[in-house]
Write a structure and sequence with these properties.
Strand content: 5-15%
Helix content: 40-55%
Radius of gyration: 16 Å
Oligomer: single chain
Structural class: mainly alpha
Strand order of the largest sheet: 1-2
Distance between the termini: 23 Å
């Protein structure tokens, strides 16, 4: 509850999401190489993993709950759509037939392994989105009551 820490966390998180949300799409920092401080773009394609998407969604929900910034809600929806084909391959990462999740995307293909980490990342993301939707209503109700 210390405002100084909240400000530092918000500035850091806003910096990160300014790098990974580009033109209405999510492109996490690839595990292929490094992203250096003054680089403008994320040139590496591929090496995107569900765990990065999952943690992004969880963080967006937390920051939305703390700050009530509508942009966090929009970005959470965009991030979740990555699992459903809104990625550079335009391929589903969540497998509707097995209820599992592929292990990620590379430059030209989906990694078709379906490990526990990836599936849990999807399930945590989905649960967070459901929780997020209910909290979004609660935050809006609070804002109406306060005004």
């Amino acid at each position: 509850d210390d405002n100084h820490y909240k400000l530092v966390a918000k500035e850091s998180f806003d910096f990160l999401i300014s790098k990974i949300f580009v033109n209405g799409h999510l492109k996490v920092i690839s595990n292929n190489g490094w992203h250096y401080r003054h680089d403008v773009s994320l040139d590496s394609i591929g090496g995107e993993q569900p765990i990065d998407i999952g943690y992004t969604i969880i963080a967006l929900e937390k920051f939305y709950r703390l700050f009530g910034k509508e942009d966090y809600a929009k970005k959470a929806d965009i991030a979740f759509s990555w699992f459903l084909g809104d990625n550079h391959l335009q391929q589903n990462i969540y497998n509707h037939c097995t209820a599992g999740c592929y292990d990620g995307i590379e430059e030209f293909n989906v990694n078709i392994n379906q490990g526990a980490e990836s599936t849990l990342s999807y399930l945590l993301s989905r649960l967070t989105m459901e929780k997020f939707k209910s909290k979004k209503v609660n935050v809006k109700q609070k804002m109406v009551l306060q005004s």
